[in-house]
Write a structure and sequence with these properties.
about 0% strand, about 70% helix, mainly alpha
């Protein structure tokens, strides 16, 4: 847990006066966790577009947020490219740091999230053909990267990272949930493929990604819960990452509902009907557990805030995971017709927008003040095995 606390300290440390690099020193400590700003922004647009409400200006507002997420993606991609180009030693050390390496999954999720938002609301600006092409490219690249990360980061955790039971954190879920994002956003592209093998392959591929991610998450989640019960709450700065557990829960519910939506156009009976039934049979209990975890996490966040929790980039964990619960509730409301689920989606969306606004404003303040890109306040301990 020492390395995890160090990672949070990175964004909470005061600005360093010393030289941290001969070129572009402001980028030296810009880690892959910055892609969370893209994810958290894009999910606001996607979730807002799917709300069962006819609010004047809502879709136009979602289009503005989508455009912002696209700009953020370009900015963070450029900054991270500069990080790798000018601070390659630091970039490599991030891969060997178990507190930072899991955040490499955020790159793939950022690509997928912006792609999904482009098809959901960006089509109003770009036109349908361009939006489909953009989403297809981002989906393809994001899925390949996501699968690679889902294999590579656990491999490094086993072979190179020095980990103990006390280090277990929801951050470990990040590389594993990435394929689930592909499973949730990929079905939207199914209707744009020719009927036949293409549609079926994409649909079943998304379903396979759902299984890959969900089963991997089920092996990791007990470690996280056991660490909380046995060792107590996470350090104050890391408490917001508890919300990351909502990611695989909400995203998997979204995935099964999205698959069910397009299954009739890609699969014949009885599979299409079975997938429709499974969306509800699976989604309702998982959403129930998500609400339980949301309540537990919120209580621990309130506890941490009362003990002096300061803003760090971990606050972005309040955005994308909650957004996946919004889209999950929207899908369940659509398939069940239950008004309570529709109001749940609206309530969670209000929570999402509030969290996004707060995290965004605090990030801008920390960024222009130099604090979020400052050097770490403590020396980085050794975190890698030699073998």
């Amino acid at each position: 847990m020492v390395t995890l606390a160090h990672s949070a300290a990175l964004s909470a440390a005061p600005a360093s006066r010393g030289a941290v690099g001969t070129r572009l020193p402001a980028l030296r400590h810009l880690g892959p966790n910055w892609y969370a700003t893209v994810m958290g922004t894009a999910i606001v647009a996607t979730a807002g577009a799917g709300l069962p409400l006819d609010v004047p200006g809502l879709r136009a507002g979602c289009a503005v947020v989508w455009a912002l997420s696209a700009v953020l993606l370009a900015v963070v991609l450029t900054a991270r490219a500069g990080h790798w180009l000018h601070h390659r030693d630091q970039a490599r050390s991030h891969l060997l740091d178990p507190a930072v390496a899991p955040f490499y999954g955020c790159l793939a999720m950022a690509l997928l999230a912006v792609g999904a938002a482009t098809l959901a609301v960006g089509r109003d600006v770009l036109g349908e053909d361009v939006a489909v092409a953009v989403d297809a490219v981002l989906f393809g690249v994001g899925t390949l990267l996501g699968v690679a990360v889902a294999v590579t980061i656990p491999y490094l955790m086993v072979v190179r990272h020095r980990l103990e039971a006390a280090d277990a954190s929801p951050v470990w879920l990040l590389p594993l949930v990435t394929p689930m994002v592909s499973a949730a956003v990929g079905p939207a592209l199914v209707p744009y493929l020719p009927a036949g093998q293409g549609r079926e392959a994409l649909l079943l591929g998304c379903y396979a990604l759902f299984g890959l991610s969900m089963l991997a998450t089920l092996t990791m989640l007990p470690l996280v819960f056991a660490r909380l019960v046995v060792r107590g709450p996470l350090p104050l700065a890391l408490t917001p990452v508890l919300f990351l557990v909502l990611g695989p829960l909400g995203q998997s519910t979204t995935a099964v509902n999205q698959v069910a939506d397009v299954a009739p156009s890609a699969l014949g009976a009885p599979y299409a009907d079975a997938l429709g039934a499974f969306a509800v049979v699976y989604g309702v209990p998982v959403m129930g557990f998500a609400l339980l975890w949301l309540a537990l996490s919120a209580a621990l966040v309130v506890r941490a805030a009362r003990r002096g929790m300061r803003f760090t980039m971990t606050w972005w964990a309040f955005t994308f995971p909650v957004g996946t619960c919004v889209t999950g509730a929207e899908g369940l409301g659509k398939h069940t017709g239950l008004v309570a689920l529709e109001w749940l989606a609206v309530t969670l969306f209000v929570l999402l927008v509030t969290a996004w606004a707060v995290a965004g404003w605090r990030t801008l303040r920390g960024l222009f003040g130099g604090r979020l890109l400052a050097a770490p306040a403590v020396p980085r301990p050794a975190t890698a095995r030699s073998g």
